[in-house]
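Summary for the funding panel

The consortium committed to producing paired sequence-structure records for every protein in the target list. Below we show the first two records in order, beginning with the earlier of the two.
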Amino acid sequence: MTRQLARYCVVGASNTAITLAAYALLVRAGVPAVAASVAAFAAGAANGFRLNRTWTFRSDRRGVRAGSRYVAVLLVGLGLNALGVALAVGLAGLPRLAGEIAALPPVTVTTFVLSRAWVFGSGGGTAGRRAAVARPR
C-alpha cells in the first residue's frame, strides 16, 4: 500500500502540472480564465483517472461506472479541501498558502483510500480476483 500511495502522489503531481500547463496554454490562446480553468482541470482529472487505473492501482475497472466514481471522489476531495482551508485559515488563522498546505495531507489520504477501495477496487488489478464468466445472451 505504501508503494501505491507514493504512486498516487506522483500521479497527483502530474495532474497538477498538466492542469497548470493546459491553463496557461488556453489563456494564452484567448480562452476566458474560468473556461480555461474548467478545461485544464478536466485534462488533469482525465490524466489522473488513466494513470491511477493503469499504474497506481493496476485495475481493469473502466467505463462510466468507474469514471462516475472517480468524479465523485474528486468532488469529495474538493469539499474536504474547501472545509480544511476554511478551518485552517478562518478558524486557526493560518496564512492562505499555509492553510492549503495543511489541508492537503488529509485530503490526499482520504481520496487515496476511496480510490483504492471504491473506484478501482481494493488492491487494484485482477490478481486475486476470479475470472469473469461469460453469460449467455
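The next record, for a separate protein in the list, is shown here:
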Amino acid sequence: MKILRLSLLPILCFAAQLPLGNALLYAAETADPAEAAVIKDAAKEQARDREINASEDPSAKREVEIQKGASRWLDEPNDINLYGSARFRYRETDSDSGWSDGGSRAGVSLRYQAIPRYWLTFRYEAGFNLFTRVSDLLDPGASSGEGDNSDIFTRLLYVGLETPLLVATLGKNWSTYYKVAYFTDRFEGTGGSASGTYNAGTDGGPTGTGRADNVLQSRFYIDYLPDGWDIKPFNLNVQLQNNEPIPNTDYNYGTTAGFSAIIDTRNDFTVGIALNWADVPDDELGELASSGIDDDAVALLVGSRWLGQRWYTGLTVSRLVNQETTDENIYFDGSGVELYSQYQVNGPWWLVAGLNALVPDKGETQAGEYKVEYGIIGARYSIDGFTKMFYFNARLDNGRLADGTALGNTYTIGIRWDLGKKFNWRHY
C-alpha cells in the first residue's frame, strides 16, 4: 500500500494541478504514523530540490549530493550535461518601458571519472542579451548580475577536480562569497544590490564576490560531528585571485582572497558567513583617492535561511569597505541588508516579498546623497518550481542617486524556462 500510495502521488498532483509537495503533505495527513514519516521526508526533500534550483550557481545541486555522502560515487557514470535558460521580461519605469533580456544563458558541463572516486570536471556557460537593455542608471541593481553589455558573453568557464571531500576549480566561477549571498539573491530581474556581490557595476568578477575571474577555489566537506548532532556535513570554501583590475580605475588589486563557512541543520535552517578581501597596493592609494578608495576592499556577509514545504525566508547583513560605488563610480564604505521571503498561497501560486537597503557611512561625503533602498512585492506562477515559471514584481524604490535624484518604481513581468539534457556513459 505504501508503494502504491507514493507511486500515485505524481499522477494525483498532475490531475489536481498541485505541486508534488502539497500532494505529499496531503498523503501524510491520511497515512498511518510510520507511512506518514516517510511521506513527510519525501515532501521535505522535494522542497529542498525546489530551493536548490533558485541558486544562480548551476553546480549547487551537485554540491548537495556531495554532502549526502560519496559511497555511491564509484557506480556513477560519466556525464555530459547540456542546459539552457530562457529569461525574458517586460519592464516599465518612470522613463522607459519595453522587453529586455533577464539573464538568458546556455551551457555545457562534463564529469569524467579518471580514477575511482576522482572526477575531472569542466563547465562553460554563455550569457545572452537578446533584447534592448534597460538603462542601469534609472534602475541600479536590476541587471547587476550580468555585468556585460555584449550580445554574447562568458558567464562561467572553469576546470576542476571533484573528490568525496574536496572540490577544486580554476577559472571563472561563482565565488565563495556567493555561497552566502544567494540566500537572498532570488528575486527575478532585481535584487542583489545590498550584499556587495555585483559590486561597482560588474558581475563581481574582478573583486571576487560574484562570478570571480581567474579564481582558484577549494570547497571542503567536513563530516566528523557526532551522529547525534542534527547538522549536515560542514561546508568550508576558500579562493584566491591575483592582479585583477580594480573596477572603474586604471589600477589592479594585488592578492584577493575569499572565505565562507556554512552550517546546515537537518531541519533546513542554515547559517553562513563570508569574507572577501582584495589588496590595494599602498603606492596606488594616492592616485585612487579621487575614486573614494582609501584602503583595501573588504566585504563581510552574514546570512541565514530557513525553508519549509510552502515557504522560504532568507536574510543577509553586509559590511562593505571600498567595495561598492555610487552611480558616479565613487567608492564608499557602508552597511547593507537584504531580505527575501516567499509563501505558497494556492497550488502553483506563490507570493514573494523583501527588501534591499545599502547606506553609506555618515563620513562618506564623496558619496553625496546616494543610497539603495527599495522594497519588492510580487507573485509567480510556478509550473515547475523555479525552473519553469511566470512572474510579476513591483520594486517600490526610495533610493537616491549621488546628486539627490529620487529613483522611481519599477514594474516587471517575465518568464523563466529552463531546459536540459544529460548524456551518460561508462568507460570501465
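Regarding this second record: Residues 176 and 260 are 6 Å apart (CA to CA). The longest strand covers residues 331-346.
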